[in-house]
């Protein structure tokens, strides 16, 4: 954990990072929300069937993953038998160890490949974070498009909607409760992040998710919200696309474009430096890169730090 600095607007959060809290968003459907929802501080879900429990996503650090397991143990005597990973990122999957091998880990084909390839790499981005020691546990059950789960009598549709936030994004849709666990395809109060996915693919994903008609949305980060997050995400993505197009036409780099651009309506979202990374993706797509094609992460991350005035990205995990 980095020490707080007076120039850091989230210094108070750094000193006392938020812990997760379980809330019931529908009958026996729980959201585990970790404030403040910024980098690596992610949300989980739990479905408490009469004789089965499923968990959706884990957490970034050993301590946070064990705290999630403890929180669930306090509300049900049943041990989770199923764990769904919405995507590959470590803040959603590093905690798999706390539930496997008792729980079968399920994810998209591409997410498994990414988890295996990346290992503990995310830890290198924030060496000051107290990650703890844990093994990487990739999904053992994977699928390419859709999978239906029955958690007792709770019906769950797992739907691949990538490339959006990553290539292997899966959402968990509960059609009877109209609850959507969106992973990082939708973020609540946080800047969208598509560097490792696709702008056009994200816009398509938002349209698909809107068509489901969710009443309650549990995003990968940030507070529980409603379908208004679809409009907010779509507005950001359209603005990102237009900003990238204007920057390319003006002959500017992604960083120059970001520095020249007022955040306007989006200034209140957490982790605004993601604009620069998003522009790297948008530029690549505007120049013909296939959706989800590899965009070098190093230069994009360096540009995000530069946009941040040289200050490292704030990770409260
Ligand atoms: Zn993510």
TrEMBL record:
Source organism of this protein record: Yinghuangia aomiensis
Protein name (record): MBL fold metallo-hydrolase
Domain of life according to the entry: Bacteria
InterPro entries reported in the protein's UniProt record: Metallo-B-lactamas, NDM-1-like, RibonucZ/Hydroxyglut_hydro
Chain ranges of the Metallo-beta-lactamase domain: 41-221
Alphabetical list of SMART domains matching this protein: Lactamase_B
């Amino acid at each position: 954990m980095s020490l707080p600095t007076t120039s850091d607007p989230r210094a108070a959060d750094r000193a006392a990072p938020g812990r997760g809290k379980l809330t019931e968003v529908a009958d026996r459907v729980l959201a585990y929300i970790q404030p403040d929802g910024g980098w690596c501080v992610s949300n989980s879900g739990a479905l408490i069937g009469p004789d089965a429990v499923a968990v959706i996503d884990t957490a970034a650090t050993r301590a946070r993953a064990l705290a999630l397991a403890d929180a669930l143990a306090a509300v049900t005597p049943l041990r989770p038998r199923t764990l769904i990973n919405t995507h590959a990122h470590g803040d959603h999957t590093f905690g798999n160890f706390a539930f496997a091998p008792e729980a079968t880990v399920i994810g998209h084909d591409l997410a498994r490949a990414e988890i295996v390839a990346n290992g503990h790499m995310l830890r290198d981005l924030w060496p000051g974070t107290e990650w703890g020691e844990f093994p990487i546990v990739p999904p053992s059950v994977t699928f390419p498009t859709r999978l239906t789960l029955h958690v007792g009598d709770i019906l769950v549709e797992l739907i691949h909607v990538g490339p959006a936030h990553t290539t292997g994004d899966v959402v968990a849709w509960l059609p009877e409760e109209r609850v959507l666990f969106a992973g990082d395809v939708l973020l609540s109060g946080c800047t969208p992040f598509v560097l490792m996915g696709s702008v056009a693919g994200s816009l398509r994903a938002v349209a698909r998710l809107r068509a489901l008609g969710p009443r309650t949305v549990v995003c990968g980060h940030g507070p529980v919200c409603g379908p208004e997050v679809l409009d907010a995400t779509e507005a950001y993505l359209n603005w990102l696309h237009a900003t990238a197009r204007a920057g390319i036409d003006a002959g500017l780099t992604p960083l120059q474009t970001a520095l020249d651009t007022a955040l306007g309506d989006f200034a209140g979202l957490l982790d605004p430096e993601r604009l620069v990374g998003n522009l790297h993706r948008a530029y690549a797509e505007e120049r013909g890169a296939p959706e989800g094609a590899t965009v070098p992460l190093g230069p994009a991350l360096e540009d995000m730090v530069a946009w941040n005035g040289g200050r490292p990205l704030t990770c409260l995990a």
